Amino acid sequence: MAKRLVPLLNRVLVEKIVPPSKTHAGILLPEKSTKLNSGKVVAVGAGIRDKQGNLIPVSVKEGDTVLLPEYGGTQVKLADKEYHLYRDEDILGTLHE
To answer: Contact, 42 vs 15, CB < 8 A?
Structure first.
C-alpha cells in the first residue's frame, strides 16, 4: 500500500541529504567536514492565510534544495524512508549550484 503525505498549511516535507563519508578515491572524510544540514523538498502545503483571508504561498517548491536548521522539524517515517516536516519560516534558505 503506497502512502503519500501532503503537508497542510505552510508545512514543507523534506528528505535530508546524506553527504558522502568518503571521496571517490576512497579517502574517509571526518564527520565534521561532511555535516551540512540540507535537504530536498518532497512536498509543500498550499500556504497560510493572513488576517484578511489572503493566501500567502509557501516560498519553496518541490525539488528545491534547502538549508535546514540544526534542530527542529517533525520526523516522519514513510515506507522505510525518513522525512522531516518544517514550517516554511523555519527553512533558512535555498541552495543553488
So the answer is: yes
Pair 62, 25: CB distance under 8 Å: no
**Helix (H), strand (E), coil (C) string for 15-51:** EECCCCCECCCCCECCHHHHCCCEEEEEEECCCEECC
**Cα dihedral sign, 19-21-24-28:** positive
In whole angstroms, what is the distance from residue 12 CA to residue 63 CA?
11
Does the pTM of the predicted model rise above 0.90? no
Residues 77 and 66: their CA atoms lie apart, in Å, by 20
**Residue labelled with grid coordinates 527553512:** 91
Average pLDDT for the chain: 82
pLDDT band at residue 1 using 50, 70 and 90 as cut-offs: very low
Q: Which DSSP category does 10 fall into?
A: T
Measured distance CA(39)–CA(68) in Å, rounded: 7
Amino acid type, 63: G
